[in-house]
């Protein structure tokens, strides 16, 4: 986008260059540390789900919506234990392929370590194949650990793919440090992402917030504003009486 001064009035007229929007290859990486089995609330009368169950539902919501927007989008799946590994390597537009991948998802033993280097290596390799087909690659990492800070070893000049992060965590306490984990995730995202990448978090344990985050990630990386200017969905707190606010949008992690 370019800004041009209009007629000496000081007003700025913005023009958007015509640009072809690429089809996406989207690689999900799902954290399968035991913390993915923490309980999430679905509502006052809903039965509880684990984080992993809610993640599966949220991804299916995302995939169906993405394919409605553009049937040419494709998806593949990996998991994060101590490091990343494939569970469905072939990118596909078939929803049943995603369901089959989910049947292979289960929590692993705690490793006390989360290395993103392999994930970045996989993504960079796949991104080159996507580019050869005039597509772009995006990684969506769903991370569930409240005390394990992710690590990586990746050169600063290799930005071949876009990265988004959804961080589901416990509330801060003596045994965890979600703020430090969040800061490390921000650092990793900014280190590797090609286009604008988003990091969205929740410590509320509410499934609907996860679904909302996934809907926000439907935005195409080539059409995004900076996350600093992202003000959707707008909070209802100002529209409701003080005693009716649920507090689900309260901030538990600082982005500063």
Question: In brief, what are we looking at here?
Answer:
With 256 residues, this protein is an alpha/beta fold. Helices cover 27% and strands 22% of the residues. A six-stranded mixed β-sheet has the order 7-6-3-8-9-10, with helices on both faces. It has a two-stranded antiparallel sheet with strand order 1-2.
3D structure, described in words:
With 256 residues, the protein is of the alpha/beta class. The protein has one domain (21-238): Rossmann fold. The protein has 5 helices and 10 strands. It has helices spanning 51-69, 95-102, 117-132, 178-192, 207-216, and strands spanning 2-5, 12-15, 23-31, 39-40, 49-50, 74-80, 84-92, 135-143, 162-168, 199-202. A 6-stranded mixed sheet has the order 7-6-3-8-9-10, with helices on both faces. The chain has a two-stranded antiparallel ribbon with strand order 1-2. A two-stranded antiparallel sheet has the order 4-5. A hairpin with a 6-residue loop joins β1 and β2 (12-15). α1 packs antiparallel against α2 (95-102) and α1 packs parallel to α5. The longest helix has 19 residues, at 51-69. The chain is globular and about 50 Å long.
């Amino acid at each position: 986008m370019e800004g041009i001064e209009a007629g000496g009035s000081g007003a700025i007229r913005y023009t958007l260059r015509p640009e072809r929007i690429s089809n996406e290859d989207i690689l999900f990486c799902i954290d399968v540390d035991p913390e993915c089995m923490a309980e999430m609330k679905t509502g006052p009368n809903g039965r509880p789900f684990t984080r992993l169950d809610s993640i599966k539902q949220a991804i299916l919501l995302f995939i169906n919506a993405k394919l409605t927007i553009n049937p040419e989008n494709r998806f593949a799946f990996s998991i994060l234990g101590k490091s990343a590994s494939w569970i469905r390597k072939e990118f596909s537009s078939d929803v049943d392929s995603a369901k089959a991948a989910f049947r292979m998802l289960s929590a692993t033993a705690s490793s006390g370590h989360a290395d993103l280097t392999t994930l970045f290596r996989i993504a960079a390799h796949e991104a080159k194949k996507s580019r050869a087909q005039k597509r772009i690659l995006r990684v969506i990492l769903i991370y569930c650990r409240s005390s394990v800070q992710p690590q990586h070893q990746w050169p600063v000049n290799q930005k071949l793919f876009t990265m988004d992060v959804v961080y589901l965590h416990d509330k801060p306490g003596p045994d965890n440090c979600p703020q430090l984990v969040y800061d490390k995730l921000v650092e990793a995202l900014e280190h590797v992402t090609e286009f604008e990448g988003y990091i969205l978090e929740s410590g509320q344990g509410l499934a609907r917030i996860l679904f909302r985050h996934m809907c926000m990630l439907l935005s195409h990386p080539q059409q995004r504003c900076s996350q600093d200017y992202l003000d959707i969905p707008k909070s209802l707190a100002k529209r409701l009486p003080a005693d009716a606010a649920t507090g689900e949008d309260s901030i538990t992690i600082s982005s500063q």
